[in-house]
Structures are given as structure tokens and as C-alpha cells.
Amino acid sequence: MGHAPARGICAFGSKLLILASRWPIRLRVADTNFVHDCDLIAAVRERHGYTQLQCSYIVGCAVRTWQRYETKGGMEIGVWWCFLLRISEIMPSQLPPIPPRQRAGVMVRMEPG
Q1: Is the pLDDT of residue 59 over 50?
Q2: What is the count of structural domains for the chain?
Q3: Any long-range contacts for 76-83 (C-beta under 8 Å, 24+ apart)?
Q4: Greater confidence, 88 or 13?
Q5: Does residue 103 have a pLDDT over 80?
Q6: How many angstroms separate the CA atoms of 107 and 83, rounded?
Q7: Would you say residue 62 lies in a domain?
């Protein structure tokens, strides 16, 4: 008997490979800050049995925005990760590492209270 592949998400440059519970889905994105594959968004929602209204509540957006994600794509990558976490498609340990923030030094001025 075969078994389902491990669940998780791996990033390979401009491609994200999502190992879902039943089948691997390859997602090609031009910009890794957005998920442009609207079929993938709809497929994950349908596999878990959620309506568009429920998914919009899960990620905190308007229903019309979720419908746009499923028809035109363009979902921000943070919303995508949030959605996958909240429907238990992935676990927090499977998120890609967060790069260190690079910012200019901060000058703190202490004033006596």
C-alpha cells in the first residue's frame, strides 16, 4: 500500500513545492511575496471543505477579496501562510525561516522621570 507524502512546504528559489496530504502541488510564482496560482488556492479550500465565506473569516478579509484570490490570484504570502496554519494544512515548524531584520541603528534617549 502506498502512503501519502509528508505534509509541508519547501521553497526552491522562485518555486514553492507544497506537499499536501494527498498530492504534491507545484506552485510557480514570479514574485515570492504573492501566490499567483488561483487554482491552488481554490483546491486547498475545497479539499478541506470550507466555503469562501468561511475562508474569508479565517484570514480576516472580505468575501469579495477571497473570491478575487480564487479568480485572479495575488494573495499575499503572509495571508497564504496564515490560511494554511489555521486550517492545519501545515504546522508552525514547517514555515520557512524568517530572515533577520536589517535596519539602521536606533538612538535611544533616556530622560529622567
Answers
A1: yes
A2: 1
A3: 76/33, 76/34, 76/35, 77/32, 77/33, 77/34, 77/35, 80/35, 80/41, 82/58, 83/44, 83/55, 83/58, 83/59
A4: 88
A5: no
A6: 38
A7: yes
